[in-house]
Design brief:
The protein is an alpha+beta fold. It contains 13 helices and 10 strands. The chain has helices at about 5-20, 25-30, 35-45, 65-75, 85-90, 90-95, 100-110, 190, 230-270, 280-310, 315-340, 350-360, 365-380, and strands at about 115-120, 135-140, 145-155, 160-170, 180-190, 195-200, 210-220, 225, 270, 275. A hairpin with a 2-residue loop joins strand 2 (about 135-140) and strand 3.
Length: about 375
């Protein structure tokens, strides 16, 4: 499936599905800190979460362009795509680096929705964005690996059957490059919990289902190694470009949600016998946000097309994520300002989306790390840290 007509059909189908789950559904989940199991299952059964899985494994065999359209429409509908987006990009690590046995074992069930791979175990409390310094270790013991360590801000693991985990298999001081000696593993969360893995939910600003993980002599089969031992950093990098493009598309959806809400309210709300949108101080900020979101959307499209063509797109994926996250945040701020006091009322739904879209300037990858990447690797300036 390709072309504008096919994308339009995908967008329309996603909107129709999202319309069955109105904003009150998401408001109640936010209040209860609940997980949208029914919504995620229906997205899976409709084939929207298996878009990136090849047809040979039961998926749609489409690209990041189509996947981005799905995520954008979910967010534009007022939903929270963070509950399900990882199903798309985490499986890319299995698809690109898994052996045939792993792909045949996992991908068909992920494609059908029977199996959820929603969790990426990378971030740690003491290392943060310094991924190569992570402390979690995996030691080979016969036909098993024994894992010890700690992870933090690992989202959706309570609602995931599998997790891709990054751990150090060779000490950092024993490798030539700091990116070496890290290995990726597939962890069956269902078997691990209570047998060396402890999950502790984190109460946070948004309903993102994030947790802290503790590994205490967790044993996993050696056959769960994903890719080559010591080459795990490359395994996760392959998934990160897709992750950033998809989240950038979500931010575009958030931004369009805010502009839709703000422009409609500015046209309808009457103060001093005239719509508040007649005032330039109200109208122009909304118009500027629209322009910024449209510009960010073009960068998302460029990055997605490059990714699907197999071209290097690290800079474009990072820039798309930065520009879209900043544009959506500004649109959220303008939408709040347009609604005034009503923006703080939960029944208007804006404050929830305002909180949700703020996350994406921090994670995945902060704005400053993106700028340092551009400065060093695109503009060839000295390393800034």
């Amino acid at each position: 499936m390709s072309g504008e007509t096919d994308l339009s059909q995908i967008r329309q189908a996603v909107r129709q599905l999202c319309d069955q789950y109105g904003e009150d559904y998401w408001l109640q989940l936010d209040r209860d800190r609940g997980y949208p199991s029914e919504f995620v299952q229906e997205l899976s059964e409709a084939g929207f979460l298996n878009i990136l899985i090849p047809e040979a494994y039961g998926g749609a065999g489409l690209g990041v362009i189509e996947a981005s359209a799905v995520m954008e429409e979910v967010c534009r509908a007022g939903a929270h795509a963070g509950a399900c987006h990882a199903q798309m990009y985490v499986m890319g690590s299995v698809l690109r680096h898994g052996n045939e046995a792993q792909k045949n074992r996992y991908l068909p069930e992920i494609a059908s929705g029977k199996l959820r791979l929603q969790s990426f175990g990378v971030t740690e409390p003491t290392t943060g964005t310094d991924t190569t310094s992570l402390k979690t270790v995996a030691k080979k013991d016969g036909d098993e690996y024994v894992i010890n360590g700690q992870k933090v801000w690992i989202s959706r693991i309570e609602h995931s059957d599998l997790m891709v985990l990054l751990a150090r298999t060779t000490p950092k001081d024993e490798v030539q490059k700091k990116t070496q000696g890290l290995s990726a593993f597939i962890v069956d969360v269902r078997e691990a919990v209570g047998n060396g893995l402890t999950i502790q939910p984190i109460e946070s600003m948004i309903n993102h289902h994030s947790c802290e993980l503790f590994f205490d002599d967790l044993r996993i089969p050696a056959e769960n190694l994903l890719g080559e031992e010591g080459a795990g950093f490359k395994v996760i990098l392959d998934g990160m470009n897709a992750e950033r493009i998809l989240i950038a598309a979500e931010c575009v959806g958030d931004g369009r949600y805010f502009v839709d809400k703000a422009s409609a309210y500015a046209s309808d709300r009457t103060i001093f016998d005239r719509p508040i949108g007649m005032n330039q101080s109200v109208q122009f900020p909304i118009a500027r946000c629209y322009a910024e979101i449209e510009a960010a959307s073009l960068m998302v499209d460029k990055a997605a097309k490059m990714f699907d063509a197999g071209e290097p797109c690290g800079a474009e994926a990072n820039m798309a994520k930065m520009l879209a996250s900043e544009a959506s945040w500004r649109a959220g701020d303008v939408c709040m300002q347009t609604h005034g006091g009503y923006a703080f009322a939960k029944e208007y739904h804006i404050e929830r989306k305002f909180r949700e879209t703020r996350l994406y300037q921090i994670a995945p990858i902060s704005t400053n790390l993106i700028l340092s990447f551009i400065g060093e690797h695109v503009l060839n300036m000295p390393r800034s840290f």
